[in-house]
Description:
Blueprint: H1 10-14, H2 41-58, H3 66-73, H4 86-93, H5 103-122, H6 130-155, H7 174-191, H8 204-221, H9 228-232, E1 241-243, E2 249-251, H10 252-265, E3 310-314, H11 331-335, H12 344-347, H13 361-370, H14 375-380, E4 381-383, E5 404-406, E6 414-415, E7 434-435, H15 439-442, E8 463-467, H16 468-479, H17 483-491, H18 502-512, H19 519-525, H20 529-534, E9 540-543, E10 546-549, H21 557-564, H22 572-577
Antiparallel strand pairs: 1-2, 3-8, 4-5, 6-7, 9-10
Helix pairs in contact: 2-5, 2-6, 3-4, 5-6, 6-7, 6-8, 7-8, 8-10, 8-16, 8-19, 10-16, 16-17, 16-18
Amino acid sequence: MKRISYIIGSLLMIAGTFTSCDINNIQNMTDLSTENFPAKSSDATAVLAGIYENLNAVMANPQESFLYYSDLASDDQLGGGGVNDKMMQALDLICNYNADMTKDFWSQRYQGINRANTLIASIPNTKLDGENKAQVMGEALFLRAFYHYELASMYGNVPLMTAPSGETVTPGDVKVLWGQILQDLYTAATTMPKQRLTNGHIDRYTASAMLGRAWLFYTGFYGNGTTIADLTSTTYKPLTEVALPNGNTLTKAQVIACIDECVNSSGYSLVPDFRNLWAYSNRNTKEDYEYTKGKGLKWVEDDNAVNPESMFAIKFNKRADWATTIGYANGLALHFGVRGGQDLANTFPFGQGWGAGSVAPNLVDDWNSAEPGDKRLEASIQDVNKLPNYAKGGWADFVQETDYYEKKQSPVSAKNDGTYEEAFPTTGSNAVPYLSCFESLMYGPSNWIQGNNNFQLGNIHDIVLIRFADVLLMQSELKEDVAGINKVRARAGLSPIGAYSLKALQNERRWELAFEGTRWNDIRRWHIAAQMLSRQLNQPIYYCGASDKNVAHNGGYEARYKATAGFQKMPESQVSLGSVTQNEGWTDNTSEYQGWK
């Protein structure tokens, strides 16, 4: 069975004690006193499980998450979905649809922060030894920082919470918010034990990687100041040092030192073949998919193997249940699956879903123009015209459909090989020629809470949030050299570049990390977002199966970005409670998406 090392077992012990639901309902988080709990390593593991579980909780409603928004709002993917899936299109267009559109994400992330704060407050009173104490503290600081990072990226100046509280907390200085995020990550990156972990937990080197990501975003995006005009300016002038709440100053040189240690000493490495990173190369599918057949590929996660490039991932398992634990399934894959309920034989090896995140044609055009022959393009993007018998239009309702699906986060099907004949017959009236999710074959038909071959809950391959290739590219960007870039290019079979340039770095990040949730904050921090988003206009799309153009809504991409700096609408429930004031660009009906036509 697919394992999720930080959830199974320990979560059952703590599920009943963590009951907070949003920023204004976060006290009495546990009946156990922080004066004597956690007392030992197993106690700390149990509490940590509850903090990590927040990653899965958000996946119960993936369409509200920052990860989902990052993909759809970027210039590389459109909204997609059906005529009634207006939220998908609204996220792409930086518009709002329905009241409290992302309330669940807000509430769940603050729940995770409060859990982390409770553990952080208790650690000084524990009997953990020095190294274990540093490890547990580092994990809790990392997760508190990561949850704040996503909230601050999504909404802007959100309330900073560093202690459990039932009080209504309001935002302070955004510089203090980001200073705390960086302080937490730097502390974790410099105090945790020098050991790579492969059990799903955060280690020192992952903290360094996240420090690099947060540093590059904050110092670039806020380099000109904090107003909407500053944030949407086309001037890129990143900061080189940041004041921390503890009175220290974090410098670019210190961040580079952490990244260098990660690259040189962590033990993480690039997977030799880029295609082996993605689930379509799994052992149950690869020899039936024309693109991978006979190529000698081997998926890094085959049979629960450890991915040497994955540094931080959301893990899933067979225990997904509609009633309680939907987030134990990879909901992102379901949303990005092929729309229309088509016969799997027509779309093999890609499985069914809701058709979100159609690949923007401008990405394919840019990629072919800038890097012809880059094998990562076909490894990342499926031209639907090359599928066996793909039919456009979905359920006759597909909006912003293009000729391209992304491969990285998609559900992957498998031909029934007869291994489990009793569960999946290969002959007779009940024959199952294809399995919706290859996981039904790889991990067997037993112990699925909602039954096997469930296309909605059967996707359980990891969502990798940070991988080592990203760290190499961050190293090149911070040091302004080509070493990291050229390692990534060599893996892709491309010639090295001779001299560093920001444009070369920007392109390499776009090609290497496409559809992995990094592009949105990249174009924002480089101050090129409005320019890049406007290139999506008039791109060829299909509306309900008919040729169409990607036209402007609510003023267009550039206008919406300049009005909001890419920040989402604050949840109305929080505004009404007085926790926050509404963000600019969201206070009148010009932000409300009414539908494609």
